[in-house]
Amino acid sequence: MNPTGNLPKILVTGGAGFIGSHTVVSLVEAGFEPVIVDNFSNSERSVLDGLRGILGRDVTAYEADCNDIGAMEDIFRKESFSGVIHFAAFKAVGESVQQPLKYYRNNIDSLLLLLELMPRYNVPNLVFSSSCTVYGQPEQLPVTEETPRLPAQSPYGNTKAICEDIIRDAVRAQLPVKSIALRYFNPIGAHPSGLIGELPRGVPGNLVPFITQTAAGLRQQLTVFGSDYDTPDGTCVRDFIHVMDLAEAHVQALRKLNETNADAHYDVFNIGTGRGETVLDVINTFERETGVSVNYTIGPRRAGDVEKIYADVAKAPNELGWEASRSLADSLRDAWRWEQKLRQEV
């Protein structure tokens, strides 16, 4: 049953995850009807409660694996989608180094299945969740969409590059799919309501959840990996983007695809702020904005870390009608609000 009538339905694979759940909110606000498919292998069912709290209603959600051909075909048959946003993928860089076959099988096969089902069920539009990891350690900064892709630093990053190539080649072969790949930089923050946010299982692999968990007393100490890089303060530089800005980019990508007349189309966009911030910038901004100190120490460099990367974001405002509007301070305040809510529930 569709509670909102005949709004265009969008399949959101991995829609209970960090970026997926925030995108579900933006889709509803923009007049789309999201349908979540998630196997909850790296997300929690409580996210659906958070979405209900924000939206004031339930969102249709199927518990299924995106590599399960039978389950996915049943969902495509039951629902009438006008587009797909494909988030579902394993994403831990370190784990991908240890278990590369797990990553190649899951991340690539799930895309192949979608590309087979979409034409069969007349679903024209695909927004693909890609990553700035496809650039490796770029020789020049900032990186544009034309910057050559260098060898990925991990099997995870390589799956993103391979998936981009699969979509490009399928479109060149006139598969009737219009697709945009969004190359994310570093998503952080949470919904300002504090009802959904980043929910890592076990020890966080990302900087900001480790900062908030350390500030909340859940972690004893944060280790900053390396202080001798060629950067303003010696720590790595990244382009940190608020997850709600990123969510809104997916809505704009869908709109762009809806406006595209060609039966087959492929394009890529950098989704970042265009600003590089060091790890210490992030810690210092968090402490300033929250008034809470973070116990951290400087450790050795971590294998596989890119020294510095940030986006040239000129293309997205010009061609996608999107640009980031929230600051690093906004992101960290929202991330802390979310962390405080989680601690209250424990």
TrEMBL record:
<dbReference type="GO" id="GO:0005829">
    <property type="term" value="C:cytosol"/>
</dbReference>
<dbReference type="InterPro" id="IPR016040">
    <property type="entry name" value="NAD(P)-bd_dom"/>
</dbReference>
<feature type="domain" description="NAD(P)-binding">
    <location>
        <begin position="11"/>
        <end position="333"/>
    </location>
</feature>
<dbReference type="Pfam" id="PF16363">
    <property type="entry name" value="GDP_Man_Dehyd"/>
</dbReference>
<keyword id="KW-0413">Isomerase</keyword>
<keyword id="KW-0520">NAD</keyword>
<comment type="pathway">
    <text>Carbohydrate metabolism; galactose metabolism.</text>
</comment>
<dbReference type="InterPro" id="IPR036291">
    <property type="entry name" value="NAD(P)-bd_dom_sf"/>
</dbReference>
<dbReference type="GO" id="GO:0003978">
    <property type="term" value="F:UDP-glucose 4-epimerase activity"/>
</dbReference>
<comment type="similarity">
    <text>Belongs to the NAD(P)-dependent epimerase/dehydratase family.</text>
</comment>
<comment type="subunit">
    <text>Homodimer.</text>
</comment>
<dbReference type="GO" id="GO:0006012">
    <property type="term" value="P:galactose metabolic process"/>
</dbReference>
<dbReference type="InterPro" id="IPR005886">
    <property type="entry name" value="UDP_G4E"/>
</dbReference>
<protein>
    <recommendedName>
        <fullName>UDP-glucose 4-epimerase</fullName>
        <ecNumber>5.1.3.2</ecNumber>
    </recommendedName>
</protein>
<keyword id="KW-0119">Carbohydrate metabolism</keyword>
